[in-house]
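Quick one:
INPUT:
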């Protein structure tokens, strides 16, 4: 068995705004494992400025992983605790290798193309006319759940857009979510959460910056708008600390990003703890290309959670990896009529 890693610069179709700035491209990293003429591939969903393993020595750790691929998987994972995106890539690559390189990691009716999965349509930050145009496009594409990024262009303007939407579509017709990425001030947050509740917003992701456990706990207890933790979970690998976080803050929901939390097994552990405490959850991608998105979508379907998941980011790029994945009718589908084209990714 041997391994190597490859890179691919993904280009956004349109500049995509977040509270941390505007994204125009994203570097994707892939681990390819070879054994008996078969290749298994997995994607490291590293997000610059957000992933806990976004460190200067990242590529050196990738090379170290490839150099030590003959270690047992359990020993290798233990050495990569603080590199969650590499752990997830390894999980994918091992499963793909076991599938004969066919990319069918979790066989199901979804991978057979018989059903789709409901996902939210993502609305990026920008000037009001740009955000309204995105909303118009997502609705025309059949989405019945929209998630709007807020916190960068002015909450008043963002609330106006949500108000206009809610006047036209009631909560039974269109589910609305917002994602603040920790951008709200703890002092202002209660008023904003009250105003969001008047619009029947399903939930708000990470209203204030992570690390403020007591302030977040107070918001979760008092807010009429349900709160979902996202960045709050990042970089916490100790099981006792994970339990302490959930029991201190006690959120209504948590959001699982396997590329950031350490892979499928680590994310499943978070899910188990949340369900034991009556908390909701859903899966969200980390802007992966179709390699990582394929693994996420296959696994998510097997979990049987009918809530809207955040799995539609593959259509963001002009040069994504050609795959059987399709976003249509407000959902993500696996088209058995289409194959994979990995191009140069599996070449040194």
């Amino acid at each position: 068995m041997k391994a190597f890693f490859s890179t691919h610069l993904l280009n956004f179709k349109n500049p995509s705004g977040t509270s941390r700035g505007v994204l125009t491209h994203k570097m994707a990293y892939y681990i390819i494992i070879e054994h008996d003429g078969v290749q298994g591939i997995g994607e490291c969903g590293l997000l610059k400025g957000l992933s806990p393993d976004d460190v200067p020595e990242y590529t050196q750790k990738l090379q170290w992983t490839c150099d030590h691929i003959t270690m047992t998987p359990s020993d290798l994972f233990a050495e990569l605790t603080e590199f969650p995106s590499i752990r997830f890539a390894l999980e994918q690559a091992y499963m793909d290798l076991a599938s004969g390189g066919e990319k069918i990691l979790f066989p199901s009716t979804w991978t057979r193309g018989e059903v789709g999965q409901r996902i939210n349509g993502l609305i990026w930050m920008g000037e009001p006319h740009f955000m309204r145009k995105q909303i118009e496009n997502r609705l025309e594409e059949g989405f019945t759940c929209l998630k709007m990024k807020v916190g960068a262009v002015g909450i008043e303007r963002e609330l106006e857009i949500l108000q206009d939407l809610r006047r036209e579509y009631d909560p039974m017709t269109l589910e609305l979510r917002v994602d603040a990425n920790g951008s709200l001030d703890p002092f202002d947050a209660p008023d904003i959460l009250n105003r969001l509740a008047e619009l029947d917003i399903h939930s708000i992701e990470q209203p204030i910056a992570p690390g403020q456990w007591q302030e977040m706990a107070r918001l979760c207890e008092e807010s009429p708008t349900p709160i979902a933790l996202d960045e709050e979970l990042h970089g916490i690998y100790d099981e006792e600390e994970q339990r302490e976080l959930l029991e201190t803050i006690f959120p209504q929901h948590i959001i699982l990003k396997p590329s950031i939390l350490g892979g499928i097994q680590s994310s499943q552990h978070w899910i188990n703890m949340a369900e034991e405490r009556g908390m909701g959850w859903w899966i969200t991608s980390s802007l992966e290309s179709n390699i990582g998105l394929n693994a996420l979508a296959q696994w998510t379907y097997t979990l049987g959670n009918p809530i809207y998941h955040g799995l539609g980011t593959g259509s963001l790029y002009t040069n994504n990896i050609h795959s059987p994945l399709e976003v249509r009718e407000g959902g993500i589908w696996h088209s058995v009529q289409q194959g994979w084209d990995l191009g140069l990714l599996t070449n040194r």
